[in-house]
Amino acid sequence: VCDVVHHNPNLRSLFLTNVNDGDHGTSILGPMLGSNALQLVDLNLSNTQLSNHGAGQLSNGLQDNTSLHQLNLTGNKVGDEGCTTIAKALHSNKTLAGLGLSANRIGDEGVISMAHMLRENSTLEFLDVSRNEIGFKGAKAVATVLEDMANSTLSYLSLKFNPVMGDSEGIHRVIEFSIKLNKIGFWKFLHEDRVWPLIMRQLYGTHGGLDVSYLLLRLRPDSMIGASANMCNSTTEL
């Protein structure tokens, strides 16, 4: 990491994936990001055995960083503790737009800290917490923030392949919270006799495979119409 950084002072994208020294890397990158000596825009540390300790080192740098837009930590071991430290850093960070935390052993505690962060953060647009250990309590905390419209920038959230996705009632309520975000009449559209049953059939038929990502309907209504149309075309008549 030292060699890569020191020999490339104008580095904007750094991909250090599928290695086993994630914590060592963040001990170097964290301070550099914090001092803005390294003007990275895109940092990928997926599958690097990054622990909550490494996440903490990275978070210290994120608090004052003014350049990083994308951070991918997929496939690590940050856990609830690491997720919480990252969330705290994003209370003050004003530039990060995308955060990937899929497959990181994150449970309700970690994602609830993310929900609290979303109430204050005004730059995050993409958040992936799929393939973790999030239950209904954590998913509801996030959904409540979205329902309250406390966050106006987040446009993509992935909760797929979490325990809550195996609970039909839990899925329904999270989806319902997300749908209520729209302010332009699509709630009624989605409850049309020919549309809602198709959505619910798909919902209960896929369970854990269902991506409860949402495209904010108030920003992307055309996407919702397209998705519903595709579902109608691909699903047999009830």
TrEMBL record:
Coiled coil: none annotated. This is Uncharacterized protein. It comes from the Eukaryota.
